[in-house]
Amino acid sequence: VTLRSPLGRVLGLGAAGHGVHDWWRQRVTSIALVPLGVWLLIALSSLSSFDRATVVAWIGSGWTPVLLAIFLIVAAQHSQLGLRVIIEDYVHHPALKTAMLLFVNFTHVLFAAAGLFAVLKLAVGAPP
Amino acid sequence: MRERPLSPHLSIYRFRYSLTSSIANRFTGGVASVAFVAFALWLAAAAGNASAFERLHATFSHAGGRVVLALVIVAFIYHTLAGIRHLIWDTGRALERAQSQSSAWLLFAATVMVSAVVLYAVFFRAAGAS
Questions:
Q1: What DSSP letter does each residue of A86-108 carry, written as one string?
Q2: ipTM for the complex?
Q3: Which of B3, B6, B37, B51 is the best mutation test for A, with the most CBs of A within 10 A?
Q4: Which pTM value belongs to this model?
């Protein structure tokens, strides 16, 4: 006795282990965010002040833009995956759930891109 | 269609303080997501026009803004430490009830200690001077 559908047997694809893809991605991003988060907290708390000139100089200096870019990309993925699980757990109305998932996805792309663009601008351009 | 019966839900569980550590991880993750947006806006303002940055700077220099910023920092620290605890669990270690309860206490204590150090550095050394 098999529980596989005739179509499933014809296609012969199986699950191929894709079911855990997002679970795994959440772990990989969280491992990366431990050192990145520690670095960010130390870097921000050792700034002499938070006025614009200091912040702009910090963003453009040394390895800061590289690490900031990595942080933005990894944090956006981690945040999107996390919010998705929360929405999937608590929002049961199908249309609303889809709308919220799309909104969360698009918002993360938007703000990650905005942050990346700002970092690149300050890293390669002349300071304003 | 008639409402289908549901299996027993959250309400059947006795409250344990280790439950708090779990729901707090979710909540602080949500806070960190909002903070991520604010952080990106802060970077964009630093690279963009000066008045937007000044407005953000003024907001977070205010007493209310400082309290919000402090809470966000504590949430970020908690979520990071709780995440490390989850990564240890993912290797199959420290899952016993007694272990998870003592690691919950360790998590709360570590959050208080790390937060104290970081909040001191941010508010009484760096921003306090500006």
A1: HHHHH---HHHHHHHHHHHHHHH
A2: 0.87
A3: B37
A4: 0.87
